[in-house]
Amino acid sequence: MVEKAGNDYCTMLRTKFSYFRAPGGVRLIDPESTTACYTCLLTQSPVGPDDLPVHASICGRNRACFTRAD
Fold first, then answer.
1. Is 53 helix (H, G, I), strand (E, B) or coil?
2. 3 pLDDT band (50/70/90 cuts)?
3. Is residue 22 in some structural domain?
4. Model pTM?
5. Position 20 in a domain
6. Residue 37, strand partner residues
7. Which tens digits make up the pLDDT trace of 30-65?
8. How many degrees, rounded to 5, is the angle at CA 20 between CA 16 and CA 22?
9. What is the dihedral of CA 10, 14, 18, 21, to 10 degrees?
10. 3-state DSSP assignment of residue 6
11. Which of 11-15, 16-20, 37-41, 43-47 is predicted least confidently?
12. Which band of pLDDT confidence, cut at 50, 70 and 90, is reported for residue 17?
């Protein structure tokens, strides 16, 4: 399990596991999981608004559609 600060992942990134948080509020996202299925809350699909795939390893600050968690 990889724990990153909340603003390292787009706040619109979702998977069944991302609804839980570690103590202190850190989002629990595992970009190396082979079974996680990711979706974007903006598009409600596995493709983001920039027409690129949604995945924890690429949904970060480098994407044009990135939304920072507050």
1. strand
2. very low
3. yes
4. 0.72
5. yes
6. none
7. 777 778 889 999 999 999 999 999 998 889 899 999
8. 140
9. 40
10. helix
11. 16-20
12. low
Q: Is 31 in contact with 16 (CB distance < 8 Å)?
A: no
- Parallel, antiparallel, or unpaired: how do β-strands 28-29 and 13-14 relate? unpaired
Q: Please indicate, yes or no, if residue 16 is contained in any of the structural domains.
A: yes
* Number of other CB atoms surrounding residue 20 within 10 Å: 9
Q: Which of 36, 45, 40 is nearest to 63 (CA)?
A: 40
Residue 29's domain spans which residues?
1-62
Q: Is residue 56, in this structure, part of any structural domain at all? A: yes
Tell me if 21 sits within 8 A of 28, measured CB to CB. yes
Domain count, the chain: 1
- Which tokens belong to 27? 């989002």
How far apart are alpha carbons 68 and 33 in whole angstroms?
A: 23
- Nearest Cα neighbor of 40 from 68, 8, 11, 64 is 11
